[in-house]
Structures are given as C-alpha cells and as structure tokens.
C-alpha cells in the first residue's frame, strides 16, 4: 500500500487534511508538538476521531456564549458558540464542544469527547457519543451515533443508528484499497462523508464508510461501504 495518506477520500473530495476541524479548530491551527495529532499522522479517517478525543478531553474551562435552558444539565466542560440553543431536557455528560448557531434537543444525550460544528441540528431524543461532527449537519430525532465522524452537510434520517462494538470485543477493521485494515479501535462506528443523506431507520454496521454525496434508502442495513463511483478506497 502506498505511504500516501488515504484520509480525505471517504470524508471529503475537496478538503485538505489540515483544514479538518478538531474541536472546531482546523488542524493547521493547533499548536505543533501538542497532544493533537499533526496532519502528517492522519492517515485514515478514524485518526481524526482520535485527534478529536485528545483535544476535547484536554479542555479545562467552560466557554458558554449560547443559550442553555434552565432544565438542561451539564456535567463536564463545555464550549458553546454564539447563537446556539441548548433546549429543555438536554443532558451533556463529559467534555463537549458545540459551535455557533446550533440547535441541540430537546431531550438529547450528548456524551463526552464530542465536537459539533457550526449550524448543526441534533434533534429530539438523539444520543451522540464520542463523535466528530462537522458544520451544517443534521442528526434526525431518535438516532444513535457513537464513535463516528460525520462530514459537512450530512442529513441523517430519523432513527439512523450506528453500531460501534463487535460481539467478540475485538478491534474493528475497515476496508481500504480492497483490504481490511485494523483501526486499533475496540469501539468504532462509522465514517460519513460530506453531503450524505440517510433514509429513516438506516442501520450501519461498525467500521463502514459512506462516501461523499451517497445515500441510503429507508430501513436500509449498511453492511458494506457505500462508495462513490470515483474511487475504491
């Protein structure tokens, strides 16, 4: 296999790795030598998830510029951008970054080391766990997304669910260049590229990738990568 990075293909056809936001800060703006992985160490898309975990878990001070409803509960360190509304019944547990002009809830469960971009909507009764979600993305109500990376302008239909744990507890493997690659992750959901739309009640096997601008039908079970026509990574 070539030593050239394969990271962007299943997430974005145009964005460079240094432009990917970790905690809503492009990788190129994170200090070199810190805990967050450098662009040169991001070979696979799940490496972005690890970089996000490292950064978000390191936060030590709150920064709340948006509106948090009195019935929302926050147990952890949060960064919430201006214009963002945290609606009634939302429970945030652990360190979480939420960008500007988002709507979260009502009755959402947002778990630690999650980063959500600008202009995102996380709907009614959604659970998000340890995810990197880019801007202008919507996660429909009654969905569970865990240990996953979602690109920009993604729209997940209601009831979209990811699986993130193998029955045997072994590391997940993901298909790259026609071969399965060990991700090094015991818990790993999905990689969803820019502009992907899922139908309601889509179920996604762990370690699968949905390439940019692809889609699923209502009730579809994603057992293999959903690929675009221009690459086979």
Please explain how this structure is put together.
The protein has 233 residues and is mainly beta. It has a domain at 63-219: Hexapeptide repeat proteins (UDP N-Acetylglucosamine Acyltransferase, domain 1, 3 Solenoid). It has 1 helix and 27 strands. It has one helix at 45-57, and strands spanning 21-22, 25-26, 63-64, 67-68, 73-75, 78-80, 85-86, 91-93, 96-98, 103-104, 109-111, 114-116, 121-122, 127-129, 132-133, 138-139, 144-146, 149-150, 155-156, 161-162, 173-176, 179-182, 190-192, 197-198, 203-204, 208-210, 221-222. The strands form 6 sheets. An 8-stranded parallel β-sheet has the order 3-6-9-12-15-18-23-26. Strands 4-7-10-13-16-19-24 form a 7-stranded parallel β-sheet, with no helix packed on it. It starts with 20 loop residues before the first strand and ends in an 11-residue tail after the last strand. The model is unreliable at 1-7 (pLDDT under 50).
């Amino acid at each position: 296999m070539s030593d050239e990075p394969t990271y962007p293909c299943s997430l974005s056809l145009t964005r460079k790795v240094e432009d990917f936001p970790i905690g809503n800060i492009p990788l190129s703006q994170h200090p070199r030598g810190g805990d967050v992985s450098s662009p040169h160490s991001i070979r696979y898309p799940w490496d972005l998830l690890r970089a996000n975990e490292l950064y978000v878990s390191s936060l030590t001070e709150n920064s709340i510029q948006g509106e948090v409803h009195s019935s929302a509960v926050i147990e952890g360190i949060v960064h919430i951008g201006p214009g963002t509304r945290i609606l009634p019944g939302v429970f945030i547990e652990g360190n979480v970054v939420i960008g500007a002009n988002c709507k979260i809830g009502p009755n959402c469960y947002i778990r630690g080391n999650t980063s959500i971009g600008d202009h995102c909507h996380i709907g009614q009764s959604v659970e998000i766990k340890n995810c990197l979600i880019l801007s202008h993305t919507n996660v429909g109500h009654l969905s569970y997304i865990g240990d996953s990376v979602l690109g920009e302008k993604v729209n997940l239909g209601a009831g979209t669910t990811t699986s993130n744990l193998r029955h045997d507890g072994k590391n997940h493997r993901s298909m790259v260049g026609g071969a399965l690659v060990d991700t090094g992750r015991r818990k790993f959901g999905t990689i969803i590229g820019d502009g992907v739309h899922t139908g309601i009640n889509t179920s996604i096997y762990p370690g699968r990738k949905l390439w940019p601008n692809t889609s699923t039908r209502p009730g579809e079970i994603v057992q293999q990568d959903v690929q675009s026509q221009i690459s086979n990574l």
